[in-house]
Amino acid sequence: MGQGLSLEQTLQQRLSPLQVQTIKLIQLPQQEMEATVRKELEDNPVLEELPLAREENPEKPEEGAPKDLSLESMKDDSTPYYKLRVNNRGRDEEPRRDTLSVKEGITDSLMEQLGFRDLSKEQYKIAAFLIGSLDGDGYLRRSVSSVVDDLVLRANIQTDEETVEYLLGVIQQFEPAGVGARDLRECLLLQLKGREQTPAVRAATLILDKYFTEFSNRHYDKILSRTGLSREELKEVQELIRRLNPHPGGIIDDQYADKADQITPDFVLTYEQGEFQLDMPRFKVPEPRLSRNYARILEAGATTRAEKETYDFVKQRWEAAKLLVDAVKQRENTLRKTMQAIIDYQKAYFIDGDEKHLRPMVLKDIADVTGFDISTISRVANSKYIETPFGVFSLKSFFSEGMANKEGEEISTKEIKAALRQCVDGEDKSSPLTDDELVGRLSSMGYKVARRTVAKYRDQLSIPTARLRKEL
Predict the structure, then answer these.
(1) ∠ Cα 276 277 280 (to 5°)
(2) 442 in helix, strand or coil?
(3) Would you state the pLDDT for residue 460?
(4) Does residue 10 belong to any structural domain of this protein?
(5) Pick the residue with more confidence: 239 or 90?
(6) Which residues, other chains included, contact 326 with Cβ-Cβ below 8 Å and sequence gap of 6+?
(7) How many domains does the chain have?
(8) Which of 253, 281, 314 is the last residue of a domain?
(9) How many Cβ atoms are within 10 Å of 453's Cβ, its own excluded?
């Protein structure tokens, strides 16, 4: 077999450095975007943060402001300096939110109560270690033996399981009631223990202690036959248990409307006088710009060896900085264009927030409108949120497959789920609707779905089976 040379022409698609950088930034939510830009500002001396412009003349650039210069046009001073928004007013003020860490709140409260107990120095340390081992709900999710081992390894305290059990019992007497429990059953029993021992409380204690599994699985007939309670008495017990708190660790935080983990929306949508207004608040995300001082170094060029080294370093950092500035700008343009396409596509929904007006929409639909790749739309929708007049929603929630109703019209699966939720909310809880009965109800409403589809949607909505929805 002979050897020879041959030429072959192939077509390959390569992403430019700017495209790669933009793709990385597009998928970042607000918090990660802020961290990324701030790190670049710290690492690259050519970058600087755009200061807030004067409110009385927002369109007038500050004196000596750097221009958006390219390496090919260093001498051209007519290029306007870089700005990301039209009004150039700087970052939007982030809404103030009073937040409280649930874990810090419950720990501080328990430690304060511990200080009033007459304990030895070693007992105090063990009890404090136990309090620090509780999770955010106030539960001890570990075995006593593992706590004993950890006390030796991490705190250099030699103790035994009996001592740890005793001190855990001390903590279980603290407020809020139920704290320090090892499971839900113990948590509820601790709360009943501190109540006045009425007949209903004693019956609830008996059921949780002896028939917790049957009660959890709604096997009420078994409980009635084994306890001798009447149906009315069991219903009273059920209401009593339902009023108990399964998450005692979060009770301290109940008075706060805002939680410690806040979602920062990437978009804010308002609807006034029949017009939509889409804004992209920056909050804490800095605006990077190119430094004019380093631009002058590149404009001046280099004659000596030392100047050449400085010139090469600045040129390299300038290219990286220019890449980031352009990528940030492209990111905003891509996000805005994609979000605007979603709003236009789901216009009827964004007017009133009624899920029945939500049209079936997949990534390809928005990709066709914007001209972006499907993967780009997916990155935009990932971890992004929009604030609307009727709540804050993930962009992913607006995408759904479609199904045909009896009239042959294509409807969103979200509309079917909303109808399913409506059926369950309106059912007789003493005789909940089975999946087959839900199929019939949905069919009468114009939604033709199979039983397995109903079961799938029910699971996605976290709706239990009919047996577990049964009430007395």
Answers:
(1) 140
(2) helix
(3) 85
(4) no
(5) 239
(6) 18, 21, 22
(7) 3
(8) 253
(9) 18
Identify which of 270, 269, 275, 259 has the alpha carbon closest to the alpha carbon of residue 385: 269
Largest CA distance in the chain: 101
* Separation CA 397–CA 388 (nearest Å): 13
pTM of the model: 0.54
pLDDT for res 418:
84
User: Do 127 and 219 share a structural domain?
Assistant: yes
Complete DSSP assignment for 309-362? HHHHHHHHHHHHHHHHHHHHHHHHHHHHHHHHHHHHHTHHHHHH--GGG---B-
Check residue 169 and give its pLDDT: 94
Structural domain range at position 451: 402-469
pLDDT at 137 over 90: no
Say if CB 472 and CB 224 are below 8 A apart: no
Q: Position 119: which residue type? A: L
339 touches 332 (CB < 8 A): no
- Distance, CA of 131 to CA of 124 (rounded, Å): 10
Q: pLDDT per residue over 199-210, tens digit each?
A: 999 999 999 999
Vertex 163 angle, CA 159 and 165, to 5°:
125
Q: Is residue 144 part of a domain?
A: yes
Query: 339, 369 in Cβ contact below 8 A?
Result: no
The C-alpha R_g of the chain, in whole angstroms, comes to 32
H or E element, residue 387? strand 385-388
Q: pLDDT tens digits for 262-297?
A: 677 889 999 888 889 999 876 677 888 888 887 887
pLDDT at 68 over 80: no
Q: pLDDT tens digits, residue range 420-472?
A: 988 998 888 888 899 999 989 988 888 888 899 899 889 888 888 888 888 77
CB 377 within 8 A of CB 363: yes
The pair of three-digit structure tokens given for residue 259, joined into one six-digit string: 């939680």
206 falls within a domain = yes
Measure the CA dihedral 259/260/263/268, to 10°.
Answer: 60
